[in-house]
Amino acid sequence: MIIESIPEAIVVADRDARIRMTNPAADRIYSRAVHPGMDAEHFAALHLCHPGLDPCPPDDLPLVRSARHGEIIQGREFAILGAEGELRDLVADSAPIIGSDGQRIGAAGVFQDLTGRREAERALRESEERFRGIFERAGISIVLADTAGRILRVNPAFQKMLGYSADELQQMTILDLTHPEDAAAALAHFQGTLAGRHETDLMQKRYIAKDGRTVWGQLTTSLLRGPDGEIRFLIGMIEDITDRKRDEELRRQAFDQIERNMEQFAILGDHIRHPLQAILARADLMEDEGTAEKIREQVRRIDALVKRLEEGWIESREIREFLRRNELA
């Protein structure tokens, strides 16, 4: 029989609300036998009425009201205590049974266990609350967009980063905020993500803030799919790396200046040595050997200083190459 295999509890009572028939699901849901002959008072004692979770009065149960008064009850919720003391949520529908003579002869009730659904709903709510807390309080910018690139939701960090309000941003697309020079690369990245070439991806791009500032961001994009596997949304997490980019540019400029200085030092060394050679040649032709030797000594001192400068240039070049190899330059 179908009634024996369905997962909902089926309980049939006579017009005095005495139990006459149950299916196996009733014993499973109630965690105890609901046997024929059980009267309304004993059956009611199995139930706890919301919100106080006190035992339900017999006349408050849907099955009893349908059996004794002919009422049709739908969607009545209450709880039961299982055999091990666990609380389970039920929803009940009941209706009177009318005999061939048109008179009420009893009632039938259908009881559905909502515990699993309620637990899933509670877990979902808790998960949503955790995500909402992370979304709102995160120090990193978070953006939710649809597959057309329209901005659906942003967190306070993203609003602060670009200076727009949430309402303003929700009227814009991702490309509206992208620096014109990065627009083509950003569009290709967006299309590649939608094409499924990567579930998550990382890129650096520039944004234009409301006040016209250029803001560098490191963007990590992830896909959010529906139950059917289709892409529904994209979520982007953006780290503001403007300061890092500025530091990198200053470092690059500093090393470029060192490079130019080294070239100038090399030229300066040549400019010093050539006259020194001429001075030494003149000293060799002098008749006053004492004076000539003094000149030679000064030339040697100057040459030693130039050599020390050259050694410093070589050391600076080696340090620079080391820093570049280790991505510090």
From TrEMBL:
Domain PAS: 127-197
GO biological process assignments: regulation of DNA-templated transcription
A Pfam entry, by short name: PAS
Entries under InterPro entries matching the protein: Biofilm_reg_signaling, HisK_dim/P_dom, PAC, PAS, PAS-assoc_C, PAS-like_dom_sf, PAS_4, PAS_fold
GO MF annotation list: phosphorelay sensor kinase activity
Occurrences of domain PAC (ranges): 74-126, 201-253
PANTHER family linked to this entry: BIOFILM ARCHITECTURE MAINTENANCE PROTEIN MBAA, DIGUANYLATE CYCLASE DGCP
Protein name: Sensory box/ggdef family protein
